[in-house]
Specification:
Blueprint (H helix, E strand, L loop, with lengths): L10 E2 L2 H14 L7 E4 L8 H11 L2 E4 L2 H4 L2 H9 L4 E5 L1 H8 L8 E7 L5 H8 L5 E5 L9 E4 L11 E2 L3 E6 L13 E6 L5 E2 L3 H7 E3 L11 E4 L4
Helix pairs in contact: 1-2, 4-5
GO molecular function: 2,3-dihydroxybenzoate-serine ligase activity; phosphopantetheine binding
Pfam families: AMP-binding
Organism: Streptomyces luridus
């Protein structure tokens, strides 16, 4: 991950966190093996995890887009339109590139959008054909996506949504106390998806991964990840 610094950092994500993420995503989005899954993401970007492993877990078909197709709106549109009942994932820029070619999402089983803030105008264009559209939120440090929200047609500002299974979201002040609704605070993420550490960065690990005061006695050593998002 590079986060806001632009400098790559290795993140140690345990297998159990990935398994929890895949199970939670399949359950929360009601995914099944009858659909075809589009893979457009480089393996250097963490969101490739669900593109690669969800179809393997479900025994479903995966369509792997070539690098040249991912950067060419017309080529990617042709690939998508050739595969009915497709579930695709990508950042807002990818979906906007497709729309700029005249593409419409009808025929797709679902559209997953994440990696950046989901602009309202883009959400309205993607939801107008009745296809399920999901906003996906989460940093690499908490295993790909930590919260999801199904976007309603005509919705205003798109929220990050609710936490996936076995995940907690807390908006806290500088004293690690929950803030009242409407009061600004920093978003902390806890639960099964929290990574172990940054690779060879103990200083940064200590700063960003902090003890979870809300975990209770059943989860000794549990930690929260400080996202830096307000």
């Amino acid at each position: 991950t590079s986060g806001s610094t632009g400098l790559p950092k290795g993140v140690q994500v345990p297998h159990g966190a990935v398994v929890n993420f895949l199970d939670a995503l399949i359950e929360g989005l009601e995914l099944d093996g009858e659909h075809t899954y589009l893979a457009t993401t480089s393996i250097s970007f963490d969101i490739h995890v669900n593109e690669m492993f969800v179809p393997l877990v479900l025994g479903a078909q995966m369509v792997l887009a070539a690098r040249s197709q991912v950067s060419d709106g017309t080529a990617l549109r042709d690939l998508i339109e050739a595969e009915p009942d497709l579930i695709g994932q990508g950042p807002p820029a990818m979906w906007r590139m497709l729309l700029d070619t005249g593409w419409r999402p009808y025929g797709m089983a679902a559209v997953l959008c994440g990696g950046e803030a989901f602009p309202r105008d883009l959400a309205q264009k993607l939801t107008r054909d009745g296809v399920p559209v999901w906003n996906m939120y989460g940093p690499t440090e908490t295993t790909v996506w930590s919260a999801v929200h199904r976007v309603a047609d005509g919705e205003g500002t798109v929220p990050i949504g609710r936490p996936i299974r076995n995940t907690t979201l807390w908006v806290l002040d500088q004293n690690m106390d929950p803030v009242f609704p409407g009061v600004p605070g920093e978003l902390y993420i806890g639960g099964e998806g929290v990574a172990r550490a940054y690779h060879d960065r103990p200083d940064l690990t200590a700063d960003r991964f902090v003890p979870d005061p809300f975990a209770g006695h059943g989860r000794p050593g549990a930690r929260l990840y400080r996202t830096g998002d307000v």
